[in-house]
Amino acid sequence: MSLPSPVSTAVVDGIARITIDNPPVNALSQAVREGLLKAISQVNEDVSVRAAVLTCAGRTFVSGADIKEFGRPPQPPFLPEVIAAVEGARIPIVAALHGTALGGGLELALACHGRVAAASTRLGLPEVSLGILPGAGGTVRLPRLVPVERAVDMITGGKPVNADTALEIGLVDVIAEEDPAREAEILASALATRGKPEPLIKRQVPRRPDAGFWEKTEADLRRKARGQQSPIEALAAIREGLELPPNEALARERERFLRLQGSFEAAALRHVFFAERNTAASIRSLDAQPVDLAHVGVVGGGTMGAGIATALLLGASSVTLIERDISATEAARKRISETLAASAQRGAIAPSAIEPMLAHLTTTTDYAALGTCSLIIEAVFEDLAVKAEVFNRLEEVVPPSTVLATNTSYLDVDEIAAGIRHPERVVGLHFFSPAHVMKLLEIVRGKASGPVALTTGLALAKRLKKIPVVAGVCDGFIGNRIMSAYRRDCEFMLEEGALPQGIDAAMRQFGFAMGIFEVQDLSGLDIAWAMRKRRAATRPPEERYSRISDRLCEVGRLGRKTGAGFYDYSSGKPVPSALVEQVILEESAARGFERRSFTPDEIMARILKVMRAEGGAILAEGIAESAADIDVVMITGYGFPRHKGGPMFSI
Ligand code: 3H9
């Protein structure tokens, strides 16, 4: 017995309504493509039909080709054929958009003869974020509808636009006040009076870009893409779309699409797409209700505490923040309002949203004010005794149902929870700085962490639009543990002959936003220094240990904040330092190394090897739930290039 088609057609008063119903996101699976072809041939043949509307059931218009089909041999009918049928229909077809019209979904809408969108619709061609380019005419049709520069931004950047922008640039004809399908019927009816619709593909390109546009855009893209190929290919396809006869351009686009679809980059980005949606599997399967997140407490108003409070306010929670004294509470409030102002300046929030958010922030020195919070996140100084004391104080003022979280990035969550009466309520919530921006949230599962504490961590991640990854207790959890391992090895490479600028350049060339030494200078060398000093007594004497960082700290080079670290910053930018090189040479000599040169490939091979080895150990110890989770951590928290799929990924 064959399954019912996900595409249905109903004709009322000469207007056909073609509806796609393929939950969750109406992806263009083989059955949808086949159903669409049938529907178009049906309305072409039915002479009573004057016009048609293409709409979707459920929460969204078509959000793209079915990514699950990408790894398998393609099954006909292919999308370009479906799209050509829609565009060449005997009658005008108007797309009624809501939710997200993405990728193949937007290409389908471009083939229609008009577009009506609900006000909350987002429209885009995000293919480059999957390592491919639009493969069903998007690069050829979009620049015929909207200004070329806007088409280039949308296709090479992959970021969707909202309905207002879509209307402004001509991507949609109408923003529906109520039901987009109903308003699409009105537009389709009006178009029907003008005879057979003109396909967009036949439309002349209104304006060619200015001289030098392609070269400059390509140079900018190459700089930003950090080795990713698909944006560069997408740009070339758009250019061909404007310079070649349309059918030739469509064929060339398809060729590029199929080639990229089989690339390492596309496999890597698909892996990350699904990996990000499948994290925290062990918590998702728990049968427990999270606590209410409407009012959350934060203890500590330093960089992390204030950042977490900002993230919570942006996530529509009320926040009560505790600091030691009045001047510290005032400093925290100032930090938070400055961060919100900067978010407004970046366009992330409306300036008018700041005051209402700050009205939901209470700063105080009185722990009793936390009595009504169902979740409290501690973000005080990274010291076990200090944190344990905070937890003991918290237990005095809150009921046993309150979940207590620690934002520690290294310390043992079990030891923090050890002294309290209800350790099942304790969980680690490791945010990354800046906490209101960074997408990663490590949910650290302590020995005693109970289901409510864990599901609360997951619910918080969802509310703050973060990606949760579960980590077990160990030194540095997943991310910091891997980073410590490769940072250590990078310092060994310094002893053996490399220089910080050489290692950083190799990492950038591989696709990292920054090299490890630039990163350390940015975050400050003192925290890791303090930790090394704490561990000095228990470090096995036979363990290899580089003294380079310690020596820089000893002379006050703590990173950017002191104007010097692995680099000098007197000009604001990192400049290699003669003094650092001297320290490195001395340490090489002291350890008896004959210095040798390292190629960028050699440096990266070594870094990746260490990352994989540490990742393997983390998996074997059960600290991470899957290799894919480790990839997600390194990509979303540590700048590993997304298009390389993560340190554990291979094909
Ligand atoms: C393309 O179109 C190529 C064409 O140019 C040419 C072809 C010839 N396919 O994200 P969510 C699943 S490339 C299959 O949690 P949200 C997803 O895995 C494509 N499955 O929801 C999840 O499954 P599960 C261009 C898909 O509301 C469920 O749907 N399009 C697809 O937060 C819910 O997803 C894109 O790149 C798909 N295309 O966000 C859009 N999309 O429940 C990619 C989603 O089993 N998708 N799923 O875990 C998105 O950006 C977001 O999913 C979306 C919804 C914004 C749509």
What does it look like?
The protein has about 650 residues and is of the alpha/beta class. The protein folds into three domains: about 5-260, 2-enoyl-CoA Hydratase, Chain A, domain 1, CATH 3.90.226.10; about 280-470, NAD(P)-binding Rossmann-like Domain (Rossmann fold, 3-Layer(aba) Sandwich); about 480-620, Orthogonal Bundle (N-(1-d-carboxylethyl)-l-norvaline Dehydrogenase, domain 2). Helix content is about 45%, strand content about 15%. It has 26 helices and 19 strands. The strands form four sheets. Strands 12-11-10-13-14-15-16-17 form an eight-stranded mixed sheet, with helices on both faces. Strand 1 (about 5-10) and strand 2 (about 15-20) form a beta hairpin. The protein is globular and about 85 Å long. About 50% of the residues are buried. The mean pLDDT is about 95. (S)-3-Hydroxyhexanoyl-CoA binds near residues 63, 134 and 277. (S)-3-Hydroxyhexanoyl-CoA binds near residues 24, 25 and 138.
The kinds of small molecule bound in this structure are: (S)-3-Hydroxyhexanoyl-CoA
What share of residues are in beta strands? Answer: 5-15%
Number of helices: 26
Q: Give me the CATH architecture of the largest domain, please.
A: Alpha-Beta Complex
- Helix/strand-derived category reads alpha/beta
> What profile does the largest beta sheet have?
8 strands, mixed
Low-confidence stretches: none
Please, how many domains?
3
Oligomer: single chain
- Globally, the shape reads globular
Per CATH, what is the topology of the largest domain? 2-enoyl-CoA Hydratase, Chain A, domain 1
Termini separation: 37 Å
Rg: 28 Å
Strand order of the largest sheet: 12-11-10-13-14-15-16-17
* CATH top level assignment of the largest domain: Alpha Beta
Q: Name the CATH homologous superfamily of the largest domain.
A: 2-enoyl-CoA Hydratase, Chain A, domain 1
Question: Helicity range of the residues?
Answer: 40-55%
Strands, count? 19
Average per-residue pLDDT, rounded, comes to: 95
